[in-house]
Design goal:
By secondary structure, the protein is an alpha/beta fold. It has one domain: 3-Layer(aba) Sandwich (Rossmann fold). Helix content is about 25%, strand content about 20%. The chain is built from ten helices and 15 strands. The strands form four sheets. It has an eight-stranded mixed β-sheet, sandwiched between helices. A three-stranded antiparallel β-sheet has the order 12-14-13. It has a two-stranded antiparallel sheet with strand order 5-6. A hairpin with a 5-residue loop joins β13 and β14. α1 packs across α6 and α2 packs parallel to α4. The longest helix has 15 residues. It is globular and about 70 Å long. The relative contact order is 0.12.
């Protein structure tokens, strides 16, 4: 079989959108060397490139914090909005209402979403806004010199903060009880899993929450800290091996796999997520099972990663409204002004 050559003027390594990987990069990172956030940004770049996403069809959102600087480091060709602390969800909701043809990707942190932004986090879940919502979770306020965040584990001891007396907020559990339709957890030290979960999240038609444990190498990387590289590598318990297959590809499974070992999940756009269960019988469509395994992992100090819950049946926010095909932010005054006969009809009913 002869291989199709790229069109004239496109690089040899171009994807189906005619773009090279460099077209998905951003500015050089100003975060600390070794920060988990940089690894996540790199996987966003790779996932977008491999999925042939056109950057101009993506809009980026963030709040305040080290994590919220991350959108600067990927997709330079995409429009972005860096909002107020904890207010990213409402900005994203409005923007994606204004042009629902765009795909939203929001990057937040455990301080931005689990503290000041928890109220907005809850509402973007229940409205099922069509966006990928990434929490780069390191357990500390890195931008303001390492105070405990709401996700810091009880008993964590930091040199300048003493010992944390409070139980942590579990981002995935909060998302699940708030009726999010896609909930996953990963670890920045597992880039392959991060990339495949990002692809599945991008294919989801609704809110896709990714809680990614992202070690802060400056303030919270002690070996016994639950958000450190060492602890993550020693305690990670993947639920399944995950692979994403784009709609254009033929689905081929390995013949030697036993019945019941592999689960295929069809996404809205025709793509397939293939899950190979490492824990026998885990069902990603069962909310009660997701709560059970999260509670179990919390008791046993496991870093449970993988796709925890998926519901492809619920309508997203935009589908609940009878919107015109033209994006709202492109409608002119002539489009919005009611016809004179309609105004006369309304006036007649009132008087």
């Amino acid at each position: 079989m002869t291989e199709a050559l790229p069109m004239a003027g496109t690089p040899a390594n171009a994807n189906l959108a005619g773009l090279s990987k460099n077209d998905y990069r951003g500015n050089p990172s100003t975060l600390c060397q070794g920060c988990g956030h940089n690894s996540i940004s790199n996987q966003i770049i790779t996932a977008m490139y491999e999925m042939n996403v056109v950057p101009e069809n993506v809009v980026k959102f963030s709040g305040i914090g080290c994590s919220s600087k991350s959108p600067t480091y990927f997709l330079n060709r995409s429009f972005g909005f860096n909002s107020l602390h904890g207010r990213m969800p409402s900005i994203a909701t409005g923007a994606l209402f204004g042009d629902y043809h765009l795909k939203g990707i929001g990057v937040s942190g455990d301080g931005d979403s689990a503290s000041i932004g928890m109220g907005q986090f809850k509402h973007v879940m229940r409205r099922n806004v069509n966006m990928v919502y990434i929490i780069e979770n390191n357990g500390v306020y890195g931008l303001t010199k390492g105070q405990f965040s709401a996700t810091a584990e009880k008993g964590l001891s930091l040199k300048k903060q003493g010992e944390n007396p409070y139980m942590p907020v579990d981002i995935c559990m909060e998302a699940l009880v708030s009726n999010a339709t896609f909930v996953a957890r990963s670890f920045a030290g597992n880039p392959k899993q991060v990339k495949e979960l990002l692809k599945a999240a991008l294919a989801h038609n609704g809110i896709a929450v990714l809680d990614i444990i992202s070690p802060c190498v400056t303030f919270n990387n002690q070996e016994n800290a639950y958000h450190s590289y060492a602890w993550g590598k020693d305690h990670e318990e993947p639920l399944q091996e995950i692979s994403y297959i784009a709609p254009r590809n033929e689905i081929m499974l390995e013949r030697e796999m036993e019945a019941g070992e592999v689960r295929e999940v069809a996404m809205h756009d025709g793509s397939i997520v293939i899950l190979k269960n490492l824990e026998k019988g885990y069902d990603t469509s069962n909310r009660y099972e997701a709560l059970r395994v999260m509670e179990e992992s919390q008791r046993n100090n496991w870093l449970l990663t993988g796709l925890l819950y998926l519901d492809t049946t619920k309508p997203n926010l935009i589908s609940r409204y009878d919107l015109v095909d033209t994006p709202l932010n492109r409608l002119t005054e002539a489009d919005l002004r009611p016809d004179r006969s309609m105004i006369d009809k309304v006036n007649a009913l009132m008087f």
